[in-house]
């Protein structure tokens, strides 16, 4: 389970993005945002999730809600991933795992009997007040982006 819960203040962060930019909670201050954590760029589940959020990006933008994908991949891998699939969301690199560890999402995993450390697929909808409005741990990708959009539409408007 994530180290923070619904209602908690989302932790501060300042991380590099695809394309050579940066994003921080301060830069997003006063605006709601979606932050989805995915394990590895250009894998099947992560690509499907990124494509789903990209397809719905105009709907999130109409609500004034940026969508940010976070992984432990280096920025160069994110740039290739974004270009290869024409992704329309901001991708953030947490190569040092500072935010992933703060969120409790750098966890031991197991595949085919082999144990390794990796990011746990989780999504946060953060309200304009900086608090976690909704949390989806251990996400199943099909239909997930639509579910997040429905929750985002229910957030109080900050006009």
Q: Could you give a short account of the major beta sheet? A: 5 strands, mixed
CATH topology grouping: Glutaredoxin
Q: Work out the helicity level.
A: 25-40%
Net shape:
globular
Name given to the CATH architecture = 3-Layer(aba) Sandwich
Major sheet: order of its strands?
Answer: 5-4-3-8-9
Helix segment tally: 4
Using the CA coordinates, give the radius of gyration: 15 Å
- Beta-strand content estimate: 25-35%
SSE pattern = EEEHEHEHEEEEH
Derived structural class: alpha/beta
Rounded average pLDDT: 93
Descriptors:
159 residues, alpha/beta, Glutaredoxin, two-stranded antiparallel ribbon, 9 strands, globular
What features would you describe in this structure?
The chain is of the alpha/beta class and 159 residues long. The chain has one domain (14-153): Glutaredoxin (3-Layer(aba) Sandwich). It has 4 helices and 9 strands, in the order E-E-E-H-E-H-E-H-E-E-E-E-H. The strands form 3 sheets. It has a 5-stranded mixed beta sheet with strand order 5-4-3-8-9. It has a two-stranded antiparallel ribbon with strand order 1-2. Strands 6-7 form a two-stranded antiparallel sheet. Strand 6 and strand 7 form a beta hairpin. Helix 1 packs parallel to helix 4. The longest helix has 19 residues, at 44-62. The model has no long low-confidence stretch (mean pLDDT 93).
């Amino acid at each position: 389970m994530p180290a923070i819960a619904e209602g908690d203040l989302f932790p501060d962060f300042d991380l590099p993005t695809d394309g050579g930019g940066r994003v921080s909670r301060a830069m997003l201050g006063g605006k709601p945002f979606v932050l989805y954590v995915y394990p590895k760029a250009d894998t099947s589940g992560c690509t499907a999730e990124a494509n789903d959020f990209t397809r719905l990006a105009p709907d999130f933008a109409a609500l004034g809600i940026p969508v940010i994908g976070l992984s432990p991949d280096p920025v160069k891998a994110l740039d290739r991933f974004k270009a290869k699939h024409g992704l329309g969301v901001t991708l953030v690199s947490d190569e040092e795992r500072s935010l992933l560890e703060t969120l409790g999402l750098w966890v031991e995993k197991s595949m085919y009997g082999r144990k390794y450390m990796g990011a746990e697929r989780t999504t946060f909808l953060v309200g304009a007040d900086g608090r976690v409005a909704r949390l989806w741990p251990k996400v199943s990708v099909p239909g997930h982006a639509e579910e997040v959009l429905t929750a985002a539409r229910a957030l109080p408007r900050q006009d």
